[in-house]
Amino acid sequence: MKNLTLSFLERILPRAASALVMVLLAAYLSPEIVGVYALGTLAIFLLQAASDNPMRQMAVKVLRTTGGMLFMRRYVIIVSALGTTLFLLFVIALVFLLPSGLADDALLLLPLAFVPSLAAIRMKNVAQLQLRGLWPELARGQMWAALLSLAVSVPVLVGTKSILASSLQIVLTEAIYSWYVRRAASHSRVKSEDSQANGTLFSEFRHVAAYSLLGWGQSQADKGLLSIFAGPAVFGMYSFAQSIARSAGDSLSTASANVLRPVVLGGSHTIREVRKLAEPVIQRGVLLSACAGLATVLAAEYLLRNILSEEWGPALDAVRIMTIGVVPTMVGWSLTVLLLALGRVKWASPIKFLGVLAAVPIAFSAIYSLELAAWLVVAREALVMMLLLGVAPTVLGRRTLVYILIAFSLLAGVALTFGR
């Protein structure tokens, strides 16, 4: 429980800081300008899905192989150069495609070009600390990164009332955290237990990257479609709702996956062994997800409605509903790690593809009703979770399934109660 809590703190602190800046943006700026910022983060999430997320899944395993360090060095060089270049090209495209009144705001996204490099550079250090179980160090690093980035970005936001503050907040968080974990891991060494050819690692990376991109499509393709077919205002409100509703839930999802990786990827395990190792983590993750979802709903209803103008009302209605999806999302992320440990992750790719297809009705529903789109988001996450369970039906026991059902039902009941 301690490791999961500390890992959750490590993931929630930067997301909480970003969510706070997003709320301040909504208080000072129009949904159209918030939509421009959301376009920038959408591109960053895509780059992370193709590089950062799959390497994070493999990093613990890579460090344990003699060929892994060379593979890691090549990864850092390629991702740093390619990620930065692609994001700069994306910003240039926005400048030409957006209306003239929003083109200048797109240029304020340029600091985000450093994010892929910073994430790649610290990958080895984070994995080293995870392998040594130094979760307090990781949480402490994120705490300082979040606080210091807010200390700079909030005054910038108040002074400039622009999305430059949000861009700076993300980059500063990444930079400070990268420096901290590099310093903390300077004396950490991981002993290589076996050898693995770079070609084998690259092949596995491509497979995991493809799966990660499908996961990105499942959670972000609806926003991509909205950015094309809906106006900036609708896109901005939908992105705001998703950011607030998913901050805590997504943090728990990555936290549970981070804790599970060193446990279940440390060697060959049978389904029974994986289940024994994973169930305590997932049960606690479900409990924390329910608490985080409840806190999010209460904050949206009693705090944000008193801070933001009435034009953000539809977005806050969507927050209440989207929060229900934090439980199946957390379970889905955890199941991905378990399927990777069992060598069955390839069977899950078609399931993720169904999640991507679901983005089409979600996006077009959002054009007319954010609340309807939010319900479809919850239905998608629940469907994907159930199908992933079908790939390895015995990987979770009845008690864990009951926990999931109770937590999901509790959040659904809360959402319906506040919706009356």
From TrEMBL:
What InterPro entries is this protein classified in?
Answer: Poly_Biosynth_Transport (IPR050833)
Q: Where in the cell is it found?
A: Cell membrane
Q: Which residues cross the membrane?
A: 12-30, 36-54, 75-96, 141-158, 285-304, 324-342, 354-380, 400-419
Keyword Chaperone attributed: no
Indicate how the chain sits in the lipid bilayer: Multi-pass membrane protein
- Residue span of the signal peptide, if any? none
**This protein's superkingdom?**
Bacteria
Q: Which UniProt keywords apply?
A: Cell membrane, Membrane, Transmembrane, Transmembrane helix
What is this protein identified as? Oligosaccharide flippase family protein
Task: Look up and give the organism this protein is from.
Answer: Arthrobacter vasquezii
